[in-house]
Specification:
The protein is of the alpha/beta class and 247 residues long. The protein has a single domain (4-112, 173-180, 187-245), classed as Metallo-dependent phosphatases (Purple Acid Phosphatase, chain A, domain 2, 4-Layer Sandwich). The protein is 30% helix and 22% strand. It has 8 helices and 11 strands. It has helices spanning 15-24, 44-53, 62-67, 78-90, 93-100, 130-137, 223-233, 237-245; strands at residues 4-8, 30-33, 105-107, 112-114, 145-148, 154-159, 166-170, 175-178, 184-189, 202-208, 213-219. The strands form 2 sheets. It has a 6-stranded mixed β-sheet, covered by helices on one side. The chain has a 5-stranded mixed β-sheet with strand order 2-1-10-11-8. Helix 6 (130-137) links the parallel strand 4 (112-114) and strand 5. It binds zinc ion. Zinc ion is lined by residues 10, 12, 36, 61, 63, 150, 152.
Length: 247
């Protein structure tokens, strides 16, 4: 049976971007979310409501953890800290409870999911190089596919059956990852609500378990609406600007 799984991550309170991506994913069989539902953006509760009400399996991101007080905001840069505190002050009790109960790692029969890295999930380390990726590959066990987010960059790492050989390819304009059965993969489908790979379109993925392909996809969304909400709410101007440049 063909199973198509939508992969979303780093929504960051951007409900315009989330709505656009959910429309693209209307026909998939399941959706998984890799964390950072909130933080930066103007609609943290609306984004949590969508993920919670649709019962989308989700892992905890560092901004989710910051907004519920389980990660110190000292780790955040100044604009991120301002937005995290703003988010913490506005989360509904129901959404706070939802975030408090998210696990750091999830596994299904096909794959594993984490926000930042598998080797140190609670510290939310970044995979920025093949050397970082190698440390997560070492934790994958029998899983051959790991989806993660956190860097907001659409890309993948592949480790061949011979240990230590790792390839890396960034796909900011989208593209297809065709999985070989003898390799291990770490795939980042990019960020829904705050892309940082130079492409301001919302990023997401579709994993087809039958053909063993992962499509990294982008969709336009009305980012000017998000920016004007942020302006009206007094969220930092640097966070507004980055939405239009994708950085
Ligand atoms: Zn993030």
């Amino acid at each position: 049976m063909r199973v198509r799984v939508g992969i979303i991550s780093d929504i960051h309170g951007n409900v315009e971007a989330l709505d656009a991506v959910m429309m693209e994913l209307r026909d998939v069989d399941a959706i998984y979310c890799l964390g950072d539902v909130v933080g930066y953006g103007p609609n943290p509760n609306e984004c949590c409501d969508i993920i919670r009400e649709r019962k989308i399996p989700t892992v905890l991101g560092n901004h989710d953890a910051g907004a519920i007080g389980s990660l110190s905001l000292e780790w955040f840069n100044p604009p991120a800290r301002i937005a995290a505190q703003w988010t913490a002050d506005r989360l509904t009790a129901r959404n706070r409870f939802f975030l408090q109960n998210l696990p750091l790692i999830r596994k299904t029969e096909h794959l594993c999911m984490v926000h930042g890295s598998l080797n140190d999930p609670e510290r939310f380390g970044y995979i920025k190089s093949i050397w970082d990726a190698r440390e997560s590959f070492a934790e994958m066990g029998s899983d051959t596919l790991c989806f993660l987010g956190h860097t907001h960059i659409a890309e993948y790492f592949r480790q061949g059956s011979r240990l230590l050989q790792v390839d890396h390819l960034a796909l900011p304009e989208g593209g297809r990852v065709a999985k070989n059965s003898d390799s291990f993969y770490i795939v980042n489908c990019g960020s829904v609500g705050q892309p940082r790979d130079g492409n301001p379109m919302a990023g997401f993925g579709i994993y087809d378990t039958d053909s063993s392909t992962i499509d990294l996809l982008r969709v336009e969304y009305p980012f000017r609406v998000t920016q004007s909400k942020m302006r009206d709410l007094g969220l930092p101007t640097s966070l507004q600007h980055r939405l239009e440049i994708g950085q």
